[in-house]
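User: Hey, my collaborator sent me this sequence without any context and asked if I could get a structure. I don't really work with proteins. Can you help?
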Amino acid sequence: MNLNQLSIIGFIGKNAETKYLANGTPVTKFSVAPPRSTSQAA
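Assistant: No problem. I've predicted the 3D structure and written it out in structure-token form, which is a compact way to encode the shape of the chain:
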């Protein structure tokens, strides 16, 4: 069994879009915006 894990921190921009390749492999596309910083550079 193969197990892959990925953690993405941010805000989802749009709904995820899943398509399937010719061989049946699912591919999901989504956009992520990074969290805004609350501090300002001096």
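In plain terms: The chain is about 0% helix and 30% strand. You can pass these tokens on to your collaborator as they are.
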